[in-house]
Amino acid sequence: MSYGRTFPLWRDACAPVWQDYTRHDFVAGLGTGSLPRENFLRYLVQDYLFLIQFSRAWALAVTKADTVADMRACAATVQALLSEELPLHIRICAEAGLPEPRLQQAEEAPATLAYTRFVLAAGHAGDVLDLLAALAPCVLGYGEIGQRLSREAERDSPYRDWIDTYASPGYQQLCTDMGALLDGVAARRLGPAPEVSPRWGDLCQTFRTATRLEVGFWDMGLA
Ligand SMILES: Cc1ncc(CN)c(N)n1
């Protein structure tokens, strides 16, 4: 799945690290079902904390967006994070005996701090395109992972629920919408040939750093 034109260019510019992210051992363990539950829950608690900061970053994108249509697209992502993705985490953790107040009291792991504060700093220091470059690996990487695992994962993987969430038409639509948002902002700010813009190298670097931080997030889950 390409999710527009800009995303594949950024992804292909950091292909080895993208591979490390989307083909990580943690992801393989979700597909085969061999990932220990304890590691999955450690990841989910941190991801709960991650998604709160990530929602703030998308809310920042609402304030930085160029047009009302873009504001709506960013606001829809805030809504999806808080009302669809976060409840999945709350439900799975509650079933495992971890009610939401316990999640709220959890301490952020260094990997969570590093990733979320990087994204927020990129957004505060830069414009909406810098912010979207930092946000894209998260949204679109899980879109790719969800699609692939829904085809390749063991039918009876205990992580089917998780896989189905990211493969679902709702999440895939979010990815398609983000790809279109990204293309529109890139065209507006960089012109018809974004790859030759003087900003292109910095944007690729921001995307690459966020992708490395995704790898660090899976590593934290496996540790
Ligand atoms: C760390 C991380 N990256 C991406 C996603 C998908 N929104 C997530 N839930 N957590």
Derived from helix and strand composition plus strand pairing, the structural class reads: mainly alpha
Cofactors and ligands: 5-(aminomethyl)-2-methylpyrimidin-4-amine
Biggest sheet architecture: none
CATH class: Mainly Alpha
Strand content: under 5%
| Coarse shape | globular
The N- and C-terminal alpha carbons lie at a distance of: 30 Å
Radius of gyration over C-alpha positions, nearest whole angstrom: 17 Å
CATH architecture: Up-down Bundle
How many domains is the backbone divided into?
1
Family: Belongs to the TenA family.
Domain Thiaminase-2/PQQC: 13-222
Catalytic activity: 4-amino-5-aminomethyl-2-methylpyrimidine + H2O = 4-amino-5-hydroxymethyl-2-methylpyrimidine + NH4(+); thiamine + H2O = 5-(2-hydroxyethyl)-4-methylthiazole + 4-amino-5-hydroxymethyl-2-methylpyrimidine + H(+)
EC number: 3.5.99.2
Describe this structure in words.
Belongs to the TenA family. Its EC number is 3.5.99.2. This protein is mainly α and 223 residues long. It has one domain: Heme oxygenase-like (Heme Oxygenase, Chain A, Up-down Bundle), CATH 1.20.910.10. The protein is 81% helix and 0% strand. The chain has 11 helices and no strands. α4 runs antiparallel to α11. The protein starts with 5 loop residues before the first helix and ends with a helix. 5-(aminomethyl)-2-methylpyrimidin-4-amine is lined by residues 47, 50-51, 85, 138-139, 142, 214, 217.
What is shown here, in short?
It contains 11 helices and no strands.
How would the blueprint of this fold be written?
Layout: H1 6-13, H2 15-22, H3 25-32, H4 37-64, H5 68-95, H6 100-105, H7 110-125, H8 128-152, H9 160-167, H10 169-190, H11 200-222
The structure holds 5-(aminomethyl)-2-methylpyrimidin-4-amine.
5-(aminomethyl)-2-methylpyrimidin-4-amine (NSP) binds next to helix 4, helix 8 and helix 11.
Pathway: Cofactor biosynthesis; thiamine diphosphate biosynthesis
Domain Thiaminase-2/PQQC: 13-222
Pfam family, one: TENA_THI-4
